[in-house]
Amino acid sequence: MEVTTNGATLSLAGRFDVRSTSMVREALYAHIEARTGDVAVDLSEVESIDATALKVLAAATKIMERDGRQLTLRGCSPALRRIIAFTRLRRLVQVERGAITA
Predict the structure, then answer these.
(1) What is the pLDDT of residues 37-93, one digit of tens each?
(2) Do 52 and 87 form a contact (C-beta atoms < 8 A)?
(3) Which of 13, 25, 58, 62 could pair with 2 as two cysteines, CB 3.0-4.6 Å apart?
């Protein structure tokens, strides 16, 4: 799993699963803490995702909401959007259709 930042966006690449969730959680929480506004997570380069990873995104969303901010998922593939809808995470997170452009 590769984690990079570009402004308010945290970009992930690779497999987002039980093996990488602790690393992503640490990076995501540090990114949230360092920013004062909304945060985006770009998932366009994520190869696969599991339930543990979805819980990390859900928890981060709740942290952001408590501060009056928003976490947005970018670059979700059709398969990932289906998983988000199936798990009802869609009620919690904001999902953009297109991948981040810059």
Answers:
(1) 999 999 999 999 998 999 999 999 999 999 999 999 999 988 888 888 888 777 778
(2) no
(3) 13
Work out the number of other CB atoms within 10 angstroms of the CB of residue 81.
14
- Rounded Cα distance between 77 and 58, Å, is 18
Let me know: does 53 contact 76? Beta carbons within 8 Å.
no
The pTM for the full model equals 0.88
Q: Which two tokens stand for residue 36?
A: 């004062």
**Looking at the domain assignment, is residue 40 inside a domain?**
yes
Residue 1's CB is within 10 A of a number of other CB atoms, namely 18
Please answer whether residues 1 and 17 qualify as being in contact, where contact means their C-beta atoms are separated by less than 8 angstroms.
Answer: no
Separation between Cα atoms, residue 39 and residue 52, nearest integer Å:
20
How many domains does one find in the chain? 1
In a domain, 15, yes or no: yes
Residue type, 54: L
Domain assignment present for 6: yes
